[in-house]
From TrEMBL:
This is EGF-like domain-containing protein. The keyword Disulfide bond applies. It comes from Neocucurbitaria cava. Disulfide bonds join C47-C56. Coiled coil: none annotated. The keyword Magnesium does not apply. InterPro entries: EGF. Keywords: Disulfide bond, EGF-like domain, Signal. It comes from the Eukaryota. Residues 22-57 form the EGF-like domain.
């Protein structure tokens, strides 16, 4: 029996088992992960669009389309060190402010044909474009930074009238990178830095060091008229500042007790932070239960995503020990693929949608049987993405 058929059967069996399990009755909206409302009479969760499951903690993912996203792993060049093409590891979708049919993807890419194994120090931020919709495919346009820059996150700040680009890393001379071998973070610092530009095409300011840490996840703190910023980082520490280039980022939420021990069942990394229409706070993260549950601690699938939520930025934050997304992806051609790794989750919300409905999930993926090759996958969520694309003339 073919692998795809086996995986599909596994998915169907898992779905049946999940449906057969009785859902615990909800008593408040926290029981619905703040992604929906608890119906008082039925004591069941009514999930917001884009979310599903008894506690509204799982993304309602639609099938992805082969050939979309940002996948140039077949690109070859004789000057490259290795044969991983233009491997990448996730990115951020940006709808052009002047041309609504143009989409940008700021993506972590590895130079010199290196792959994910050499992310430090070969990673840099590239900009790709799609005129075929937010799902892509995206074509490379330019390098935005040099190496070493990683964990790219970009968003528009109305108060600053500028795009803010967040990364980790430090600028190094190109000739300092002589191979695809990874080096210690002690030699290549993981400080979180931010730059600004009036347009997504630049020009960008010099990077300003915000905090010592890694995996930046920023979000505007108050309203669109405020320059205040919230910044989540590794171990889910959360900082705030009066403006992006402040020298005084204040820690307002220390690492929670459920995220301070490696190989604990609640071990996470790569947070993505946002605020919903009701003012509640949420985060997606790579749930490293995929490694914890592996006997040799090298297996990174299938459970890979989790959701966290809180009424206020300062907490208390609640960790959802239920799968928000997995490394098993269904495609529109009927195939199903389990990836070796699926990490770095980011959501795309329409700028015109006051409902803060998630439309697409962007992740870095690595196919089974590969050691360093990786690319960026974009998967639609729920049904709201169809209306979004219809209004732009693609569906």
């Amino acid at each position: 029996m073919q692998l795809g058929t086996l995986l599909l059967r596994h998915l169907l069996i898992s779905s049946v088992v999940t449906l057969a399990l009785p859902a615990a009755p909800c008593t408040n909206d926290e029981d619905c992960s703040l992604n929906g409302l608890c119906h008082p009479r039925s004591q069941t969760c009514h999930c917001d669009p884009g979310w599903t499951g008894p506690s509204c903690s799982a993304l309602d993912l639609s099938p992805a389309t082969r050939g979309t996203g940002y996948n140039h792993t077949t690109y070859t060049d004789p000057t490259y060190y290795k044969s991983y093409g233009n491997s990448s590891w996730g990115g951020q979708i940006v709808q052009d402010r002047h041309n609504k049919k143009l989409f940008h993807l700021l993506v972590d890419q590895f130079s010199h044909g290196c792959g994910l194994g050499g992310w430090r120090p070969t990673s840099f931020v590239a900009r790709a474009e799609s005129t075929k919709g937010p799902q892509g495919p995206y074509e490379w346009v330019e390098g935005v930074t040099g190496s070493f820059r990683h964990n790219a996150y970009v968003h528009w700040s109305p108060a600053d009238q500028a795009y803010l680009l967040w990364t980790i890393g430090v600028d190094v001379p190109p000739d300092a990178i002589g191979s695809c071998k990874s080096v210690s973070k002690d030699a290549w610092p993981n400080n979180i830095s931010v730059a600004a530009a009036p347009e997504i095409t630049g020009p960008w300011t010099r990077f300003h060091v915000a905090v010592n840490g890694t995996n930046p996840a920023p979000w505007p703190l108050l309203s669109t008229a405020s320059k205040k910023i919230a910044l989540a980082a590794e171990d889910f520490k959360i900082y705030t500042a009066d403006r992006w280039d402040s020298n005084e980022y204040q820690l307002v939420h220390a690492a929670p007790p459920w995220n301070t021990s490696d190989y604990a069942p609640t071990w996470t990394e790569d947070p993505f932070l946002w605020r919903d229409k009701r003012g509640n706070w949420h985060a997606l993260a790579h749930w490293m239960i995929d490694i914890v549950e592996s006997k040799n601690r090298t297996k990174k699938y299938p459970r890979v995503g989790t959701h966290m939520f809180a009424r206020s930025l300062e907490g208390p934050w609640k960790f959802t020990q239920q799968e928000a997304f997995s490394s098993v992806v269904a495609f529109t051609d009927g195939s199903v693929e389990t990836f070796n790794r699926r990490e770095r989750p980011k959501l795309f919300f329409s700028d015109d949608d006051g409902e803060v409905t998630p439309l697409y999930l962007v992740t870095g993926v690595q196919p089974l049987g590969t050691s360093s090759l990786s690319y960026t996958l974009i998967q639609p969520i729920g049904q709201a993405w169809r209306k979004f694309e219809e209004e732009l003339g693609w569906v």
